[in-house]
Amino acid sequence: MTPEELSKIASAQQETLKKYTHRIHVCVAAGCQSSDADKVKDALSAEVKAQGKEKCCLVKGVGCMGLCSAGPLVSVETGNILYQEVKPEDAKDIISSLDGEPVQRLICPTDIPFFSKQKKIVLENFGKIDPETIADYIAVGGYQALFQALTEMDPPEVINEVLKSGLRGRGGAGYPTGLKWSTVAKADSTRKYVVCNADEGDPGAFMDRSVLESDPHRVIEGMAIAAYATGADQGYIYVRAEYPLAIKRLKNAIKQAERQGLLGHNICNTTFNFNIEIRLGAGAFVCGEETALLASIEGKRGAPRPRPPFPAQSGLWGYPTLINNVETFANIPPILRNGGDWLAAIGTEKSKGTKVFALAGQVKNTGLIEVPMGIPLRQIIFEIGGGVPEGRKFKAVQTGGPSGGCIPEQHLDISTDYESLATVGSIMGSGGMIVMDETSDMVDVAKYFMEFCMSESCGKCTPCRAGTAQMHGLLDRICSGQAETRDLALLEELCDMVRNTSLCGLGQTAPNPVLSTLRYFREEYTMKLTDASAKAAAK
Amino acid sequence: MTTQTSIRVKTLVIDGRDVSAREDQTVLQVAREHNIFIPSLCYLEGLHPVGACRLCMIEVKGIPKLQPACVTRIKEGMEVVTRSERIDKYRKMVVELLFAERNHICAVCVSNGRCDLQNMAKALDIDHVGVPYQYPRLNVDATHVRFMADHNRCILCTRCVRVCDEIEGAHTWDIMARGRDSRVITDLNQPWGESESCTSCGKCVHVCPTGALFEKGKSVAEMVKRRQFLPYLTTMRESW
Amino acid sequence: MPALLGKPTMPSDDKRWRIVDATMRRNGYRQSALIETLHTLQETFGFLEEQGLRFVAQSLRIPVSMVYGVATFYNYFTLKPQGEHTCIVCTGTACYIKGAAALLSSIEGRFGINPGETTADMKLSVLTARCFGCCGLAPAAVIDRETAGKLTPSDIMDRLDRRISA
Asked: Are A514 and A491 in contact (CB under 8 A)?
């Protein structure tokens, strides 16, 4: 395909869409699907037919609109109306109202902070394009960035834009993406690989799932650009088997891209070749760790290995391999389209751009949000999230999943960026954000995460395998009121040891939930201890 | 095939001592050559190091995290510290965690007095185990004609797995499940005696650091493990 | 060696072996196809049974102990036959905060089975998952591939009863 052909597809699709005076979008991402969005979509289509409006009215499935708690969501694009909790029975009213007043009882206000405080870059096409139609993606400028890279830039220039953007890995650790790319680009090898880490294992995180379900081509385009920049010709997307819908849409997207010549040989009539294969995970959190992920792609047990060598030097089958997560790749096309400086102008000094969060737990508006880096945590929880429901009191927000920590009320005014979150004992992580209210027992929360790490430990290294089991045992004793002060002391010693001696990130960060709850809610621990000195200390 | 390419010599400092070594060596190898003791359990000369037991953790100047000596390649000018208060503390805890994880009753063990785990405890001056014993219920496999496997004494170092794969080439052993449920298995987790791939060569028994794998008929403290074969076999293969 | 051993014969004339073989063939019988193949094996047979593991090991020329090690490493694979219906309760953080434990204990109270177990009549298997990514709808469960959110113990009982009696 040539750039001209690409823009031809784009304008043709734009024309097609313009023909419809009414375009109704139904969210068909996994969240709304589990609230029967498919049936709503079928009912709407049937109703359009029944009322004979096929010519002027289009019903299409689109990606996640964000406010999952109010799903299924339906938007009437042409009238800027958003409907919430739509049932198949509502189809008639919605279609009948198209030329008149909107259906008041279903309206979801869009002028609330949940929508207005967000800044969408990664999620820009969410709720707008049909994730199963490549033309829809091309119509909004899709694959232009890839063509631009292939025809107007050499690989170092591409890397330079990514470096300039200041983009850091969105998987959690925050390593500068451009640096990673240039290491792989510089590696001297006959083969190189690009791997997309879509093994979103943090319980309570669904950013990557949503991106794959709502805008899969964006990830494919990002990967292709990365492959061009680093000199790779084969890509793998490692995606969790727990995400059947994401897998289905990815497979479909890859097929479409291949058919259009956007993947395969001589892409855009250049010498650039790139193919993508999907690899399914099989339920192992540790496979989010890059060396474990590579082992799993090779068909082995997902046990991490010591680094160095880093995958950028020796990765899949020993070849240099670039590994980025879904959201990182999803940031690439807009960076190339708008330039690195454009992204660098958003966010804070060290954390550029936006971050997608999965907001969940005891908060009114649960769902998917994207905010500029640096926004105060309080704004996310109380304005965008709408605060804690039913008049209960906020207690803590958990970020970073099992590797992160709980942040209490007094630190809610910190800026949401990599460094600030670290100073209060948590991490940015991949983007899970779970709000807890006064009913949550923080020791039990710590135990929950420790149970997670214990059963997800691969078992290779002693501190993580045996240490997490011991820590879980101690937390269990504390929770059930059978522990004494010395048990708590032992727990803290184990935290220190496991953190400093474990082989991979899972073990090194497993103590974090304990350490952060101890830091802010120590009295909840001491209150549960049985010996006299502990009781006295608790008072 | 050995490639006779020139291997450069580098100098580094271990515990204040200037030492020189080949650039393809690890800190652990160099330390051993110079009689500097770094405890280890999963490491065995002749097998691929895996950096799993975390006993050989050392400090390298300029790197904030502790590094496992068995997989850390030396570098010119490297400054290594093999003992410190914190390293000693962590090493003790590693050994204590191993003791508490399974049922190590030295008094009735075939390897008593000749056990690597026991030796580490001695070398690290461990006089008690500070973490609660887990007392898992594990079985003993006596189905093989010549050997026995007692999972109560296994520390999951994977030496048996590696020697069987890398040296014998049978790959009878592997690890099943994960985390604290991990177990060494033969073939499809079937009794050792029924394994179709096992050649009964006994290499796994002799590289096992504890009394987990031993010869039938041996009683308390009678199991002598011979590991001399390993360096010979590896060298022979390399120079073949 | 490969030439000597040749291609292993299928364990029986059950047509499903061809589906498993097709996955391996598509991947060129490379060792890296192991996890993909185990997925197919589980999809077609419902669980990973011994004969299947041996067949895959032979076809991909992987030691059987390694196949077993991989099959038991990943939570998604099961070596036991599953019930007619499966109910997977999400135990992700959001679901934990919103009461996944209550769902599980109601199932245990009603059917007497814990996660990973199947009722004696092989009607129902209960499993847990780390996170479906439906955190906005916590607590969630997947009953026979259908996701349901914002569940209460009585909701899940209703749904299970309907499935089982149907």
From this structure: yes
pLDDT tens profile B67-122 = 999 999 999 999 999 999 999 999 999 999 999 999 999 999 999 999 999 999 99
CA distance A363 to A382: 8
CATH class of this structure's domain A442-538: mainly alpha
Give me the CATH topology for the region A14-110: Glutaredoxin (3.40.30)
For A460, the closest chain B residue by CA position comes to: B52
CA distance B94 to chain A (A): 6
How would residue A302 be classed by pLDDT, with cut points 50, 70 and 90?
very high
- CA–CA min distance A525, chain C (Å): 19
Could you say which residues from 17 to 56 on chain B have a Cβ atom under 8 Å away from some Cβ of chain A? 50-55
B176 contacts in C (CB within 8 Å)? Answer: 68-69, 72-73
| DSSP single-letter state for residue A282 | -
Query: Of A306, A490, A497, which has the smallest distance from its Cβ to B68's Cβ?
Result: A306
Q: What is the pLDDT of residue A539?
A: 57
CA distance B49 to A310: 17
CATH 1.20.1440.230 in chain A, residue ranges:
442-538
Are residues C136 and A366, on separate chains, in Cβ contact within 8 Å? yes
- Using CB atoms, pick whichever of C53, C63, C72 lies closest to residue B197: C63
A3-7, A204-208, B54-58, range with greatest mean pLDDT: B54-58
pLDDT digits (tens, 9 = 90+) for B158-195: 999 999 999 999 999 999 999 999 999 999 999 999 99
Q: What is the pLDDT of residues B13-54, one digit of tens each?
A: 999 999 999 999 999 999 999 999 999 999 999 999 999 999
At a CB cut-off of 8 Å and minimum separation 6, what does B144 contact? Answer: B191, B192, B193, B195, B198, B200, B216
* Range A354-437 classified under CATH 3.30.870.10: no
Q: What is the mean pLDDT of chain A?
A: 94
Superfamily in which the A141-344 domain is placed by CATH: NADH-ubiquinone oxidoreductase 51kDa subunit (3.40.50.11540)
Pick C133's closest partner by Cβ from A200, A366, A458: A200
Contacts of A535 (CB under 8 A, 6+ apart): A529
Contact B193, B185 (CB under 8 A): no
ipTM (interface pTM) = 0.95
Per-residue pLDDT tens over the stretch C49-75: 999 999 999 999 999 999 999 999 999
Dihedral angle, C-alpha A12, A13, A19, A20, nearest 10 °: 180
Q: Terminus-to-terminus CA distance in chain B, angstroms?
A: 6
Q: How far is CA A401 from CA A174, A362, A506, C150, in A?
A: 15, 16, 11, 21
- Determine the 3-state secondary structure of C158 from DSSP: helix
- Kindly report the CATH number that applies to the domain delimited by B11-83: 3.10.20.740
pLDDT at C166 over 80: no
- Express each pLDDT in C5-26 by its tens digit: 678 889 999 999 999 999 999 9
Domain B107-230 part of CATH 2.60.40.10? no
Distance from CA of C71 to the nearest CA of B (A): 8
In order, the DSSP letters of B164-205 are IIIII----EEEES-GGG-EEEETTT--GGG-SS-----HHH
- CATH superfamily, domain C85-165, is Glutaredoxin (3.40.30.10)
